[in-house]
Specification:
521 residues; Alkaline Phosphatase, subunit A; 4-stranded antiparallel beta sheet; 12 helices; binds calcium ion; Arylsulfatase, C-terminal domain; 8-stranded mixed beta sheet; 18 strands; 2 domains
C-alpha cells in the first residue's frame, strides 16, 4: 500500500469559477456532485481569497508564492519571467514528477513557457473551447474535441503513467481548466440544462451604486449593458452602431444594447433560431441575466464531470488515500451580484475563490473553515506536504495546519488584494488595494493616473471604502465616512499599513493625512 508520506498532489483549478456555482457552497444555482465529493470527504474552505482578482497575476501568485509587486506579473500583459523560481521547480528538484495541462496564461515562447514541469501541454493565451490549439515542447498543434475533456484526458494519462506504478516518485499535477471563462461555450451534452426553468436573480442585481466608490458606477461589467451577442449565444446582426456599441475599437464584437423607454429589439438565438422580442428594458435585462447564468453554469458542468473522472481514477488505482486533491479557481466571479459579470474588484464574489481539499490521512471529512487563506499560501502548502523546505523568497504560509485544525495562535487572519490593471479598455475597472479580515474590508481607490484608456476616468479624488461583511455581506453600505465606524477604519488602516510594509508593497496613500482628514489623527 502507498504510504501517506509525500502524497501525490492533484491541483485542479478552473478559470473564473464562482463559489456560488458549486452546490457544496449552497449557492442554490446548480448541482456539482463530483466537486461536492471533496467537501463531503474533505474540507470546504469559506474564506480563501486571491491577491489579485484576474487570471494571469493570480496564476503567478500561485506558482511563486509571492505577491504581484514581487513576481512583477501585475496585469494580463505582464507575463511571467520563467527564469524565476517557482514551486514546480522545487517539487521537481525534490523528487516529484511534475505535470501541467490546460490554461497557463503566463505567456508563450522561451521566456514565458512553463518551466519546472516534466510534462506540459497548454493553451496559448485564453485558449478555445472547441478544437483548441495546444502547445507543448514540440510546438503548437490543434487538438480535436472540447477543451475541458481534452485537459481531463491528458491528466488521466499522466496519472496512469506516473501514479500507482511509481510509488517511490509521487506526482504534482496541475489540471488547469479554461472553463468557465468567457465566452461561455458548453459541451453539447449539457445544452439541455435549465431549458425550461429560470434561475434566481441576486437581490442586488439592480444596484444603483449609490454610497459606493465611483469605480463601481464606472465599471463596464454590467449584465444589462456590457455583454456581447456572442456572450449570450445570440446572432449579431450585420451593421454598425445601430446594432450595438463595439466591445473595443479594433474588434468586431458588439454589445447588445440596453433599451431606452420606447425602444424595442429583436434577438435571434444562434442555436434554436428562435426570435425574442423586447420592448421593456427590465424584461430585457432579466433575459440577459438568464442567458448569461445558464450558459455559464452549463460550462461549469463539464468541469464537474472532469473532477469525477479524476477522483474515480485515483480510487480505481488505489491512490485516493495518498493524494492531496485540491479544487479551486484562479479567482471568483460575479454572477449578477451588483448587476455584474466578470471579476477584478475586491468585492466578495470576486475576491473569494472556491477551495476544497481532500487528504484522508490528515483532513477530517465534512469539515469547513473560515480562517483566512490566500492564494500566495498555495505554494508553501504544496512544499509542506512534500516535506520540502519553503524558500525564504515565498511570502505565503503553509495551509496544512489550517486544513488539519491545528493552526497556531499567531495566524494572521488577513488577506491583501491589489488590482493593478487600471481602467482597462474592456472593463473600465479601476486599480485599488485593500485588506479583508474576518469581519471588515477596507479598500483604497487611488484614482491617480491615466490608466489604459488614456484619459482620467473622471475627476474623482482618492476614495476609501469600508464594509462590515458580517452585517452587510453584499457590500452595499460604504462605512468609510461613518463616524460610528471611525475606530474600525483606523484599525483596518493600521492592518493595511502593516501588511503592505510586511510584503514590501508601496502605498499610494499617506495614512497620517487620511486620519487627519477624518479627525482621527
Ligand atoms: Ca480567471
Amino acid at each position: 500500500m502507498p504510504t501517506t508520506d509525500r502524497p501525490n498532489i492533484l491541483f485542479i483549478m478552473s478559470d473564473d469559477h464562482a463559489f456560488r456555482a458549486i452546490s457544496a457552497y449552497g449557492g442554490g444555482l446548480n448541482h456539482t456532485p463530483n466537486i461536492d465529493r471533496l467537501a463531503r470527504d474533505g474540507l470546504r474552505h469559506d474564506a480563501c481569497y486571491v491577491t489579485n482578482s484576474i487570471c494571469t497575476p493570480a496564476r503567478a501568485a500561485i506558482l511563486t508564492g509571492t505577491y504581484n509587486h514581487v513576481n512583477l506579473v501585475t496585469t494580463l500583459d505582464t507575463h511571467m519571467d520563467n527564469r524565476l523560481p517557482n514551486v514546480a521547480r522545487h517539487l521537481r528538484a525534490g523528487g516529484y514528477r511534475t505535470g501541467m495541462f490546460g490554461k497557463w496564461h503566463l505567456g508563450e515562447g522561451p521566456a514565458h513557457e512553463p518551466v519546472g514541469f516534466d510534462e506540459w501541454c497548454v493553451f496559448p493565451g485564453q485558449g478555445d473551447y472547441f478544437d483548441p490549439v495546444m502547445i507543448d515542447r514540440d510546438g503548437p498543434r490543434t487538438v480535436p474535441g472540447y477543451a475541458t475533456d481534452i485537459v481531463t484526458d491528458q491528466c488521466l494519462d499522466f496519472i496512469d503513467r506516473h501514479g500507482a506504478q511509481d510509488k517511490d516518485q509521487p506526482f504534482f499535477l496541475m489540471c488547469h481548466h479554461k472553463a468557465p471563462h468567457r465566452h461561455f461555450q458548453c459541451h453539447p451534452r449539457h445544452r439541455h440544462l435549465w431549458q425550461d426553468e429560470d434561475l434566481p436573480i441576486p437581490e442586488n442585481f439592480d444596484d444603483d451604486y449609490s454610497n459606493r466608490a465611483a469605480a463601481a458606477e464606472a465599471a463596464r461589467m454590467r449584465v444589462r449593458r456590457d455583454m456581447t451577442y456572442e456572450d449570450l449565444g445570440l446572432v449579431q446582426p450585420e451593421g454598425g452602431a445601430e446594432v450595438g456599441e463595439l466591445l473595443w475599437s479594433e474588434g468586431r464584437l458588439r454589445l447588445i444594447p440596453d433599451l431606452a423607454e420606447g425602444e424595442s429589439i429583436d434577438l435571434l438565438c444562434a442555436e434554436s433560431g428562435e426570435i425574442f422580442h423586447f420592448d421593456d428594458p427590465a424584461e430585457l435585462a432579466r433575459f440577459k441575466y438568464q442567458r448569461y447564468i445558464k450558459r455559464y453554469l452549463r460550462t461549469v458542468q463539464a468541469i464537474d464531470d472532469s473532477v469525477g473522472r479524476l477522483l474515480d481514477r485515483l480510487e480505481e488505482t488505489g491512490q485516493a488515500e495518498n493524494t492531496l486533491v485540491i479544487y479551486t479557481s484562479d479567482q471568483g466571479f460575479f454572477l449578477g451580484e451588483h448587476g455584474w459579470f466578470d471579476k477584478r474588484f475586491m468585492y466578495e464574489e470576486s475576491l473569494k475563490a472556491p477551495f476544497l481539499v481532500r487528504h484522508p490521512a490528515g483532513i477530517t471529512a465534512g469539515t469547513t473553515t473560515r480562517r483566512i487563506a490566500c492564494n500566495v499560501d498555495f505554494a508553501p502548502t504544496f512544499l509542506d506536504y512534500a516535506g520540502l523546505p519553503v524558500p525564504s523568497y515565498m511570502q505565503g504560509n503553509s495551509l496544512r495546519p489550517m486544513f488539519e485544525d491545528r493552526l497556531g495562535e499567531d495566524w494572521d487572519d488577513l488577506a491583501y488584494h491589489r488590482y493593478w490593471m487600471h481602467n482597462d479598455i474592456f472593463h473600465h475597472a479601476w486599480a485599488h488595494y485593500g485588506v479583508r479580515d474576518d469581519r471588515y474590508k477596507l479598500i483604497h481607490w487611488y484614482n491617480d493616473d491615466l490608466g489604459q484608456l488614456g484619459a482620467r476616468p473622471n475627476d474623482a479624488q482618492p476614495e476609501w471604502e469600508l464594509f462590515d461583511c458580517q452585517e452587510d455581506p453584499f457590500e452595499m453600505q460604504n462605512l468609510a465616512k461613518d463616524p460610528a465606524h471611525a475606530e474600525v477604519f483606523r484599525r483596518m488602516l493600521g492592518k493595511l499599513d502593516r501588511r503592505m510594509a510586511d510584503i514590501g508593497d508601496v502605498p499610494e496613500h499617506d495614512s497620517g493625512a487620511v486620519l487627519a482628514e477624518l479627525g482621527l489623527a
